[in-house]
Design brief:
Elements lengths: L40 E3 L12 E3 L1 H10 L2 H7 L3 H5 L2 H10 L16
Antiparallel strand pairs: 1-2
Length: 114
């Protein structure tokens, strides 16, 4: 039997439960710990190319920083150990710098050093 409305139909209104509950708070960023903003990137701490399946919420700028500072092999070695990543001086400097920024803050990131 065909659906009456598509799951992606913009004109379809979900049934109203009558409760005006607040939306849950945004998940904290896996790297910097700040609440995530409008854009949440679901990052694979262990790259998919290396067998990673787990995902963690991150700011786009935090994900770009990881990609710029680590290779896939290095990320595979660290796995879900965020403390190990924070021992890198460049990542620690970034996290300290971004700590007081708005959750939706974005800036250009330096290119990967090869």
């Amino acid at each position: 039997m065909a659906r009456k409305h598509s799951r992606h139909d913009r004109n379809f209104d979900a049934p109203d439960d009558g409760d005006e509950t607040e939306a849950p708070p945004p998940p904290p960023c896996w790297l910097c710990g700040r609440p995530t903003g409008q854009t949440v990137v679901w990052h694979h701490p262990v790259p998919k190319s290396r067998g990673g399946r787990d995902v963690v919420p991150m700011h786009p700028i935090c994900q770009q920083t990881l990609i710029a500072n680590f290779t896939n092999s290095e990320l595979q070695r660290y796995g879900l150990d965020v403390e190990g990543l924070l021992l890198n001086p460049a990542v620690r400097k970034f996290v300290d710098w971004v700590a007081n920024k708005d959750p939706d803050f974005t800036a250009p990131i330096t290119k990967k050093k090869r």
